[in-house]
Amino acid sequence: MRVGTDTSKFPGARENGPHWTLDKISELGLDGAFFRSALELSPTLDAGELGEIAAHATGLGLYLEVGTAKVNPFATPEAPEIRRLGDGDYLLGMRRIIEALAGAGIRELWTATANYQFKIQGLYACDRFRTDVSWADQLAATAGVLVSLAPILRDHGCHLNIETHEEITSFEVVRLVEEAGPDAFGITFDTANVLVRCEDPVAAAHRVAPYTRQSHVRDVALAFTEDGIGRFLAPAGQGVIDWPALLAPLVEHAPDATLSIEGIIHGRAEMPLFVDDPVWRAGHPDLTLDEFAEVHRLTRSYAGRADLAALRAPTSSDEELAFITDSVAYLRTVLTTLGSPA
To answer: Could you tell me which CATH number the domain at 3-221+233-271+315-337 has?
Structure first.
């Protein structure tokens, strides 16, 4: 399995552009790059620009994966640039992104279902708990968009890989993929986000492994807080995740999937689990008692290391780069022990 990085949290990527970023990733000995948006590569989806960047990645021996946009119609107003790409038609904007990336030979494409408002505190920061539209209605609308996109993806030999994002459970992502068709859709497995939904990351890995084609990989620190439980990001091997147990089903079912480290920027991205809130608990109908108990166990296991002030402190650029490089080194070691040397 190849181990690379998500560029959205790669120090210097935003300021210096994709060619510089690919060079730096190669210099660090990583295997590839995951760009969150096609517009980072070319704001106009210019075929020449996209082809140059794809060729640059190939020349460096790097994998190149790129994102499209959100597929939940209730989240799309927060991405007006996609609608502009389609001359007012959001689905046409998505079609143009898919066609442009496929034309450059990029066929593993990221998407997600909603957003998290980091400037808002409390339950309603997460789109899962919007009061103007239920989460069930958001999922149903998302499923309709997937049906519309499926023929385009099949025509171009692409997979649109839905992330286990902060607002959605792995149970729900699996159902979306199974219903829309694994020949056109897959999963981007975010190992840290499943814990925001109070899921055991190893159990989640077993659920998503048959459909996983991409990933956002990072470890998690857990601490009891005034909200319930706080999830913080940590380099792989420095948190609560049992990496040999988590990677084993991926090695078995998804050996060609890439492992892209999603790092940190400015801080460790605290997200609360409001485990004592009856509204929060009712919003997780798939959550089992076993997984709820496992997350509590993992939180207690980290208690001796949980320094809330340190976890909430700003991070430096050196820490942010080390987060990526330390994670890569650790994961390569684990993969070797599993018989899948990176």
So the answer is: 3.20.20.150
296, 209 Cβ separation under 8 angstroms = no
Closest by CA to 92, choosing from 27, 30, 148, is 148
The answer to whether the CB of 100 falls within 8 A of the CB of 109 is no
- In whole angstroms, what is the distance from residue 122 CA to residue 32 CA? 36
Q: Which residues contact 309 (CB under 8 A, 6 or more apart)?
A: none
* Contact indicator for 189, 213 with CB cutoff of 8 Å: no
Q: Which two tokens stand for residue 289?
A: 């008692």
Query: Please, which residues have CB within 8 angstroms of residue 215's CB and are 6 or more apart in sequence?
Result: 188, 189, 190, 191, 250, 257, 258, 259, 260
Residues in the chain: 342
Tell me what the pLDDT averaged over the chain comes to.
96
d(Cα 217, Cα 175) in Å, to the nearest integer? 22
Q: Which residues of the chain have pLDDT under 50?
A: none
Helical spans, DSSP H, in the chain: 13-27, 47-59, 80-85, 90-103, 135-155, 170-180, 193-196, 201-208, 243-253, 278-282, 289-301, 308-311, 317-337
Q: What is the pLDDT of residue 342?
A: 63
Other C-beta atoms within 10 Å of 125: how many?
18
**The model scores a pTM over 0.85:** yes
Whole-number Cα distances in Å, 146 to 138, 165, 177, 329 = 12, 17, 9, 36
Q: What is the CB neighbour count within 10 angstroms for residue 231?
A: 29
**Alpha-carbon radius of gyration of the chain:** 19
185-190 and 212-216 as β-strands: parallel, antiparallel, unpaired? parallel
In DSSP notation, 84-149 reads: HHTTT-HHHHHHHHHHHHHHTT--EEEE-S--B-TTS-SGGGBGGG-SSS-HHHHHHHHHHHHHHH
Domain residue spans of the chain: 3-221+233-271+315-337
Cα 51-56-61 angle, rounded to 5 deg: 125
What are 38-60's pLDDT values in tens digits?
Answer: 999 999 999 999 999 999 999 99
